[in-house]
Write a structure and sequence with these properties.
about 425 residues; alpha+beta; Cytochrome Bc1 Complex, Chain A, domain 1; 2 domains; 15 helices; about 40% helix; about 20% strand; globular
């Protein structure tokens, strides 16, 4: 494949560009050369995560159901081969490799300063070379079982998942990414191969390479390494999810010094948010709760939060969406009360032009500065691609956002009646 067959996407605003296009194998490719950078970062990922437990392939009539945790299990197993593991191979190139499974994607990645193309060849090879046996699958069950038990005792993990369990009535986002000890016991080599051949189809995958690269060399390597696969589409199947939450409060006691909280606001998720909506939500949350906001200062002055732990995120994916505030607090109920009071004030009184412009500049500045990091660019490109959004379009959407549009997000987001407060209390002595 020639570089001229890719589309060059340019941002006049940023004075930067990247290349994107579909390889003949079906793989979506993004190449972002940054010659001034010493390092290179690559991601090879698939649109397949923990929520994908029910699906139907376009070449089959029957629906498939698989055990919870199988996407994460696959991620672990793919590093292994009959001849050893990928980490041993990476040790020879000096690359730092890793992988992760989220609710809706699985990604394999590496960063390096030299031997870029050797490292990329390893990545393209092992992700396309599954090797599962009864023996290796059984061995992994013990390892992942231990990981699940460790997460069960992790307060930061539990405060989030308890909130999701209380928020969602049917959607599998409420189930731990790694599954349960019971669900992973049902995983077999046959199931792993089935999920692999369904979701690790190059038409369902993306490759992002950012940094000190020659784009044509990357394409030549893709021509050599990619194994074309039959274009199969996959329908993800979810039970209808009510707009309401299962319960508005959930509490647990664990070994923590001070209470932890997650306050989530559920919203309708019939479709993925647009680039414009994502940008508006980012500005809205900055307005509400960044470290220059009146709410943040009030909470801090009242010693209800500390700077290091308090945060917020817009959490969304296929069939789920919510805004989450989290942190450590001596009185989570008082934090919830203050956040609700601030939301009511925004809905009633709006915000000043000055506050809006400050929040907009903050979000814009953070996003522009992220283009200095090859890691940030690659991760953003992958996640934007999987959600059918565009990297540069997001920056433009932030720059073009209006106060009216940002505040209109309050009509569908951060609704008090759809909230859940999750608290982890210190264990009583």
């Amino acid at each position: 494949m020639k570089l001229s067959e890719l589309k060059e996407v340019r941002s006049e605003r940023l004075g930067d560009s990247y290349y994107e296009g579909k390889h003949p194998s079906g793989l979506q490719i993004y190449l972002y050369p940054k010659k001034q950078n010493a390092s290179t970062y690559a991601i090879f990922g698939t649109r397949y995560g923990s929520v994908d437990t029910r699906f139907r392939r376009s070449d089959e009539k029957e629906e498939s159901k698989v055990p919870a945790g199988i996407a994460h299990y696959l991620e672990h197993k793919l590093f292994e081969s009959e001849d050893g593991d990928a980490f041993t191979r990476y040790a020879k190139t000096g690359a730092s490799a890793n992988a992760y499974t989220s609710f809706d994607v699985t990604c394999y990645l590496f960063s390096c300063t030299e031997h870029v193309y050797d490292s990329l060849e390893i990545l393209l090879d092992f992700v396309q070379s599954p090797y599962f046996t009864e023996q290796t699958v059984k061995k992994e069950q013990g390892i992942i079982g231990q990981e699940i038990r460790m997460y069960d005792d992790d307060p930061d993990w539990r405060v989030l998942f308890n909130m999701l369990e209380a928020m969602y009535q049917n959607h599998p986002v409420k189930v731990d990414i790694a599954g349960t000890v019971e669900s992973i016991a049902k995983i077999t080599p046959e199931l792993l191969y089935r999920c692999y051949h369904t979701f690790y189809n190059l038409n369902n995958m993306v490759l992002c390479v950012v940094g000190n690269i020659d784009p044509q060399k990357v394409l030549d390597l893709c021509d050599k390494m990619l194994k074309p696969s039959k274009a199969v589409t996959v329908d993800r199947i979810f039970q209808p999810e009510p707009e309401t939450v299962l319960k508005s409060r959930i509490e647990q006691s664990l070994s923590v010094a001070s209470p932890l909280f997650s306050l989530g606001f559920k919203e309708k998720a019939e479709r993925r948010a647009t680039t414009k909506e994502m940008a508006e939500t980012s500005i809205l949350l900055s307005l509400l709760a960044d470290d220059c906001s009146p709410l943040f200062r009030r909470l801090l002055d009242a010693s209800l939060i500390n700077e290091s732990s308090f945060g917020y995120e817009n959490f969304e994916g296929p069939g789920y969406a919510c805004v989450i505030f989290s942190g450590e607090s001596k009185d989570p109920d008082a934090v919830e009360k203050e956040i609700l009071k601030e939301l009511e004030s925004y809905r009633k009184n709006g915000v000043s032009d000055e506050a809006f412009e400050r929040a907009k500049k903050t979000v814009y500045g953070k996003n522009v500065s992220s283009f200095n990091s090859v890691e940030s660019i690659a991760n953003a490109m992958a996640s934007f691609s999987f959600a059918d959004r565009s990297l540069f379009a997001y920056v433009d959407a932030i720059a073009n956002a209006t106060k009216e549009d940002v505040l209109s997000r309050l009509n569908t987001q951060l609704l008090p009646e759809n909230r859940v407060l999750s608290i982890i209390h210190p264990e009583k002595a």
